[in-house]
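lol forgot to send this yesterday, sorry. struct tokens for the thing we talked abt
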């Protein structure tokens, strides 16, 4: 059926490399191969070795392009694909002016289904094979999202957003309906095929304490599910949260006191953190998620990657479409690099490519399934052309090392550098 032997320059990671000298952190094989069988990676390594195992499996020769594990986006909003690049405001005005009206349309199941197809196309066109998505507050949007992902056999994580106050009626649920809908969606979708569920209270401002308590009850009843929300993105958001939750020690405590923290919790943004909050994130094993293009676009602030890492915290990295401005995890790395530059921090190319593959898989606890090209993993593979544009080809003519080539790819690359994306062994990108 979909068995294919891919040939190309193979790059896969074993742990996070701090610099190019950390050769044990990755395997790079100039003439490499990945044998995809039944949607899984049956073998990978030097072409000569893998070809022996492959028998008469058809070969797709991608040389001189690079084969890497498909990219993973750990924070994205499915119902925001039509409001990317909406002008002029910071977080709370942007939500009220653009986001909530767009999300209200997802009450319509037909609209949700049409947009779910476009959403998945955009992801794979940009080399992303797994995303952790906020759907709208409407059950229909989560159903459309999971049905489309199942149709394509994508490993996708998502959840119906829970929000029962401080937003227009068209996007509000109630504490009870959000609990009931989330329960039903978990029963229908979590662990079905490649789907996984994320319990999704939007953020403190749009949830009553009653709703957060029910979200905590869901998380306690379903420890196998993820929890995703937003934390400390913007100063006005933090002040408003403090006024709504006067008993909370700080913003994080709103989630902590409702039992929402743990190793499967993803905290979008986490920019303006107090020391106590950082300690509690570390102690609970929760994961901040760095959203570079979004943080710059909304003027939210500079994510302290090195500071969090020094406290033993592992962060994800993500687009945060539609406050983020690019679906490309390469462009996400580009802007992430610059945010760290402004703080005298470094994002080396090898660590960068680790982050959007194995690193994000580790954050999700899925490294045995996605994020590498190791035998036994699911066959999600991206094929990258570092010379995709004339400007990139000119630049690459002077690249002398793999690290240099990857760095220029991270800074200059986008969907034009994605030659092909395989999901569970099946090519997704239409021929140009
Ligand atoms: N905080 C609460 N909701 C959102 C959202 O949709 N996008 C961003 N960037 N921040 C949020
Ligand atoms: Fe977000």
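and heres what i got for the seq, position by position
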């Amino acid at each position: 059926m979909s068995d294919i032997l891919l040939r190309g320059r193979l790059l896969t990671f074993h742990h996070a490399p701090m610099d190019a000298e950390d050769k044990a952190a990755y395997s790079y094989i100039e003439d490499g191969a990945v044998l995809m069988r039944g949607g899984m990676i049956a073998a990978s390594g030097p072409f000569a070795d893998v070809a022996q195992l492959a028998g008469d499996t058809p070969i797709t020769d991608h040389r001189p392009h690079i084969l890497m594990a498909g990219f993973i986006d750990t924070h994205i909003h499915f119902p925001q694909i039509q409001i990317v690049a909406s002008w002029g405001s910071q977080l709370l005005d942007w939500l009220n002016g653009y986001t909530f009206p767009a999300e209200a349309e997802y009450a319509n199941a037909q609209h949700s289904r049409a947009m779910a197809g476009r959403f998945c196309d955009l992801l794979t066109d940009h080399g992303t094979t797994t995303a952790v998505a906020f759907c709208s507050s409407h059950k229909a949007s989560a159903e459309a999202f999971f049905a489309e992902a199942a149709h394509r056999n994508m490993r996708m994580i998502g959840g119906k957003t829970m929000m029962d106050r401080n937003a227009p009626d068209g996007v509000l649920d109630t504490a009870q309906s959000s609990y009931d809908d989330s329960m039903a969606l978990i029963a229908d979708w979590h662990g079905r095929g490649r789907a996984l569920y994320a319990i999704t209270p939007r953020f403190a401002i749009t949830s009553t304490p009653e709703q957060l308590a029910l979200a905590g009850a869901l998380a306690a009843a379903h420890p196998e599910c993820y929890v995703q929300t937003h934390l400390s993105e913007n100063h006005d958001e933090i002040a408003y949260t403090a006024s709504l939750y006067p008993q909370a020690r700080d913003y994080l405590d709103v989630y902590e006191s409702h039992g929402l923290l743990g190793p499967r919790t993803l905290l979008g943004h986490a920019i303006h953190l107090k020391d106590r909050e950082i300690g509690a994130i570390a102690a609970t094993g929760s994961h901040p998620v760095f959203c570079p293009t979004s943080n710059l676009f909304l003027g939210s602030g500079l994510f302290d990657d090195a500071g969090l890492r020094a406290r033993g915290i592992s962060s994800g990295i993500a687009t945060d479409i539609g406050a983020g401005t690019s679906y490309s995890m390469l462009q996400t790395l580009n802007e992430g690099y610059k945010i760290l530059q402004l703080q005298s921090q470094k994002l080396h190319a090898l660590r960068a490519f680790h982050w959007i593959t194995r690193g994000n898989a580790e954050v999700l606890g899925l490294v045995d399934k996605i994020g590498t090209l190791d035998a036994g993993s699911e066959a999600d593979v991206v094929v990258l052309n570092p010379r995709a544009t004339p400007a990139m080809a000119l630049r690459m003519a002077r690249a002398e090392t793999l690290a240099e080539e990857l760095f220029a790819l991270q800074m200059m690359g986008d969907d034009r550098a994605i030659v092909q994306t395989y999901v569970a062994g099946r090519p997704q990108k239409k021929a140009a």
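Residues 75, 77, 230, 268, 320 surround fe (iii) ion (ligand 2) (CB under 6 Å). anyway ping me if u want another try
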